[in-house]
């Protein structure tokens, strides 16, 4: 199975409305997520060492003189197109996705214009490649009704549950089962479970996962 149940749930989760930005272009408004956000989500869902981004191709498709700003200062306009490949290692297989993006750079310095255009093109291509994995990477914005975009308040509780499951999976892989028990029974985790108002059913589910990972829990250890 390519992804764990926890990862699938995270990929299917709605996109937080708080991370959605808007820009105007040619008199129309467009919704988007920023480049740093999709990287952070890839680290959270796939793991820091389980995914990679590789720029396969980048080329300049336009460069011309232009006037900049209200003062009409002499400068340059540059456009690049980039192709980025995303690889995700699931443990069993490695998945690949690719995306194309365009970037524009405007500056009085020609080098700065090129640099801005390249960075924007790579960021745009990376977002398009990651978008194919699910809503957290901006897929939800391709639906004009944005039915899979939700308020942060609605998402924080489920995100805590998902992150707890992911942590149980990660620490549960340690040779010593006490590592997981110490994490579960720590004061900070108990406080988090109270603050996020975990329901009895959710608590039972999480306890079952901890018990399964520790294999031979002692009476009273899972609290």
Radius of gyration: 22 Å
Known CATH architecture of the largest domain: 2-Layer Sandwich
- Average pLDDT, to the nearest integer? 90
Helix content: 40-55%
How many helices does DSSP assign?
7
Major β-sheet strand ordering: 4-5-6
Shape: elongated
SSE order: HEEEHEEEHEHHHH
Q: Can you characterise this structure?
A:
With 223 residues, the chain is of the alpha+beta class. It has 2 domains: 5-149, 2-Layer Sandwich (Enolase-like, domain 1); 151-214, no CATH class. It is 42% helix and 28% strand. It has 7 helices and 7 strands, in the order αβββαβββαβαααα. The strands form 3 sheets. It has a 3-stranded antiparallel beta sheet with strand order 4-5-6. The radius of gyration is 22 Å and the shape is elongated.
Annotation keywords:
223 residues, alpha+beta, Enolase-like, domain 1, three-stranded antiparallel beta sheet, 7 helices, elongated
SSE blueprint:
Elements: H1 5-12, E1 15-16, E2 21-25, E3 28-32, H2 35-46, E4 51-68, E5 73-89, E6 94-107, H3 110-131, E7 149-150, H4 152-172, H5 178-184, H6 187-195, H7 200-214
Parallel strand pairs: 1-7
Antiparallel strand pairs: 2-3, 4-5, 5-6
Give a quick summary of the entry:
The chain is α+β, with helices and mostly antiparallel strands and 223 residues long. It contains 7 helices and 7 strands.
């Amino acid at each position: 199975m390519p992804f764990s149940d926890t990862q699938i749930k995270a990929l299917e989760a709605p996109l937080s409305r708080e991370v959605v930005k808007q820009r105007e272009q040619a008199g129309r408004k467009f919704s988007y997520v920023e480049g740093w956000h999709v990287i952070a989500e890839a680290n959270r869902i796939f793991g820091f060492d389980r995914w990679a981004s590789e720029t396969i191709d980048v080329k300049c498709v336009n460069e011309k003189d232009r006037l900049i700003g209200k003062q009409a200062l002499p400068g340059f306009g540059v456009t690049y197109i980039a192709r980025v490949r995303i690889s995700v290692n699931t443990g069993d297989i490695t998945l690949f996705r690719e995306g194309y993006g365009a970037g524009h750079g405007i500056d009085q310095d020609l080098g700065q214009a090129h640099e801005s255009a390249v960075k924007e093109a790579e960021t745009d291509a990376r977002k398009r490649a990651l978008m194919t994995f699910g809503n957290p990477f901006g897929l939800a914005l391709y639906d004009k009704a944005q039915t899979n975009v939700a308020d942060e308040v609605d998402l924080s509780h489920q995100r805590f549950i998902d992150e707890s499951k992911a942590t149980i999976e990660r620490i549960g892989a340690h040779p010593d089962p006490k590592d997981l028990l110490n994490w579960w029974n720590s004061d900070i985790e108990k406080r988090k479970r109270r603050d996020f108002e975990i329901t009895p059913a959710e608590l039972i589910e999480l306890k079952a996962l901890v018990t399964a990972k520790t294999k031979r829990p002692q009476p009273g250890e899972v609290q």
